[in-house]
Design goal:
Layout lengths: L3 E3 L3 H4 L1 H5 L1 H10 L7 H10 L5 H5 L3 E3 L1 E13 L7 E14 L3 E4 L2 E8 L3 E10 L18 E15 L3 E15 L3 E8 L2 E10 L2 E14 L1 H8 L18 E14 L3 E11 L15 E15 L3 E3 L1
Parallel strand pairs: 1-4
Antiparallel strand pairs: 2-16, 3-4, 3-15, 4-5, 5-6, 6-7, 7-8, 8-9, 9-10, 9-11, 10-12, 11-12, 12-13, 13-14, 14-15
């Protein structure tokens, strides 16, 4: 089956995607387990109580909430391990909320539980797109895979950096919920990564380039969601297979992001390799790597009159 382009069916086929598209847009913007401008944000928060009123008045005043609307595009494998890919466009709402605990901003969508100059603990979100098995030759006749919402705590350490760059260690652990005809548990994932960000100005606009790399780990239920073959779906060419928990491969993320008061631009590339993974021998695996590329563009059209200091 040839690679596919999806435009129209996106609204029906990926209806669950749009239930969490805000989490997706922000996760892709910060690249799912990385954070933007953490050092500046953490420093401001941790010292705010000790600053005098004159310093506070000099802080940047930002709207409590904003809403951006735009467009995104993505080219990716249906899942890492298949040669078949899909390309589609999708609408991108970008909600920004700068509350004391619940936030949706440059650092992603989360609930900040603990934050210090050197580390922070928050509740973060991510998700994987649904897979229609009829679109993938290796999965013909098997059940579809619903969209997976991933939610869980993420511990982040600042390892170093200066005024324009930063090194971060991210330790996210997430439970997976599969949205299809209902909501089912789909195991757990752990995706530690080392991240480097560099902030610079180009054409009078702020930009941030990011690189993140790290291994991936999954529970047995999560691995089998994508790579298991139940007895009822086994064929002579596709024998029964049950994946074990453990190593899921490695991931390299590259991103280029620019956000100001009017618009958001994000370009991203993700390379994944599953050599040595616990499911490497699955009959649903025909290649050891996968490449995803995409972009997001949004303009901020709605903003609150109430502001907060940052």
């Amino acid at each position: 089956m040839p690679n596919s382009f999806v435009a129209r069916p996106v609204f029906a086929k990926y209806r669950t995607l749009f239930m969490v598209v805000a989490a997706f847009s922000l996760s892709q913007a910060s690249f799912a387990d990385t954070a933007a401008t953490t050092a500046a944000t953490a420093t401001t928060a941790s010292t705010q109580e000790n600053e005098n009123s004159e310093a506070e008045s000099s802080q940047e005043q930002l709207p409590l909430w904003e809403l951006g609307l735009g467009l995104g595009g993505l080219h990716q494998p249906y899942y890492v391990g298949t040669d078949q890919t899909r390309t589609f466009a999708f609408p991108v709402p970008v909600p920004v909320y700068r509350g004391r605990v619940f936030k949706s901003d440059d650092d992603g969508m989360r609930a900040e539980l603990i934050k210090d100059q050197r580390f922070k603990l928050d509740l973060s979100l991510d998700f994987n797109l649904a897979v229609d098995s009829s679109d993938v030759d290796l999965r013909q006749g098997m059940d579809d895979i619903g969209s997976l919402l991933q939610i869980g705590p993420s511990l982040q350490f600042k390892l170093g950096g200066g005024a324009q760059d930063e090194w971060l260690l991210n330790l996210p652990v997430r439970a997976n919920l599969e949205f299809d005809d209902g909501i089912d548990g789909a195991g757990y994932t752990f995706a530690p990564n080392l991240t480097y960000f560099n902030h610079f100005t180009w054409r009078d606009k702020p930009w941030r380039a990011g690189v993140a790399i790290g291994p991936q780990f999954g529970s047995k239920d999560y691995q089998n969601t994508y790579y298991g073959v139940a007895p009822e779906f086994a064929t002579p060419e596709r024998p029964e297979f049950e994946a074990d928990s453990g190593y899921s491969g490695s991931r390299l993320l590259l991103s280029l992001r620019s956000k100001d008061k009017d618009r958001l631009w994000v370009w991203f590339l993700r390379y994944e390799n599953i050599s040595g993974a616990s499911f490497e021998d699955s009959p649903l695996v025909e290649t050891s790597d996968g490449l995803s590329v995409g972009f997001i563009y949004s303009r901020f059209l709605f903003k609150s009159k109430q502001t907060v200091s940052r």
